[in-house]
Design brief:
The chain is α/β, with parallel strands linked by helices. It has ten helices and nine strands. The chain has an eight-stranded parallel beta barrel, surrounded by ten helices. Strand 8, helix 8 and strand 9 form a beta-alpha-beta unit. Helix 2 packs parallel to helix 3 and helix 6 packs parallel to helix 7. The longest helix has 23 residues. The protein is globular.
């Protein structure tokens, strides 16, 4: 069933488990996520991000994801992640996405707050949920790499003000996490997660989930993280599945697709078990 993130994440927060968000930039990825969630009776979040639109335009993503979510036997939220522009976020809403992340985290604080508060007013009027980001989650490489990430960690007191004044449904936090492949083992600030969760009272979101250890995930969820974003692990698994199919003699794209889906499904299954959301639908 197609839902927004509100009840899903509130239940996760109160129940002490996490819900996985998986970017699904083609039908095979979407099948791996939704069919695995159905088999495990787990709520799940699927979608895309603005940075991923060159791989698959938003309108194409909506054409397959939203009908698949509607027909699913478990709650599925369709989320537009890291929306960088107002217009793109509005396009996602018009296409039927049920949740929007409006990422203004690199803007000055008051500008971030005002922009996200406006997005909340619009989305709530349309039955959609909003995720904001406070602090800034950088990349492990490239233009988004931060020379001193701790300078951009989320401040708990500021987070409380941000949540109160925007009305966001979920808050992405910067606590030592980063997007992409980690070059060195990350060190998450778990006490900061606890402090932010306690003072804001909203579900927290951990971006840059691929590459964290199982113990990192378990501890983060126990401390108040309710939504965990996964893409790199899923993307790499699909590639590995194709390579395995080629080694086994697959000669066509059609023959390769089951290998990719099976490999990606294994990642989804592992994350659902790890986050504790199996059987929660």
């Amino acid at each position: 069933m197609l839902v927004n993130m509100r009840e899903m994440l509130q239940s996760a927060r109160s129940g002490g488990y996490g819900v996985g968000f998986f970017n699904a930039v083609n039908v095979e990825m979407a099948r791996a996520v939704i069919e695995t969630a159905e088999a495990m009776r787990a709520p799940v979040i699927v979608g895309t991000a603005e940075i991923l639109l060159p791989a698959m335009p938003m309108e194409r993503v909506a054409e397959y994801l939203i009908p698949m979510a509607r027909q699913a036997k478990v709650p599925v939220a369709v989320h537009y992640d890291h929306g960088l522009t107002f217009d793109r976020c509005m396009e996602a809403l018009r296409l039927g996405f049920t949740s929007i992340m409006y990422d203004c985290s690199t803007a000055p604080y008051e500008e971030n707050l005002e922009n996200v508060a406006e997005m909340v007013r619009i989305c709530h009027a349309m039955g959609a949920t909003v995720e904001g980001e406070l602090g800034h989650v950088g990349d492990n490489e490239g233009a988004g790499k931060l020379s001193n990430p701790s300078d951009f960690f989320t401040d708990p007191a500021v987070a409380a003000d941000f949540v109160r004044r925007t009305g966001v449904d979920a808050l992405a936090v910067a606590v030592g996490n980063a997007h992409g492949d980690y070059k060195f083992p990350p060190k998450l600030d778990f006490q900061r997660i606890t402090d932010i969760s306690g003072i804001t009272g909203v579900p927290l979101v951990l971006h840059g989930g691929s590459g964290l250890s199982d113990s990192d995930f378990r501890e983060a969820v126990a401390r108040g993280v309710s939504k965990i974003n996964i893409f790199t692990d899923l993307d790499k698994a699909g590639k590995a599945g194709v390579e395995q199919g080629l080694r086994e003699g697959a000669a066509t794209l059609m023959q390769l697709m089951p290998h990719a889906i099976e490999a990606m499904s294994a990642v989804v299954r592992n994350k659902i078990e790890l986050f504790g959301s199996a059987g929660k639908a």
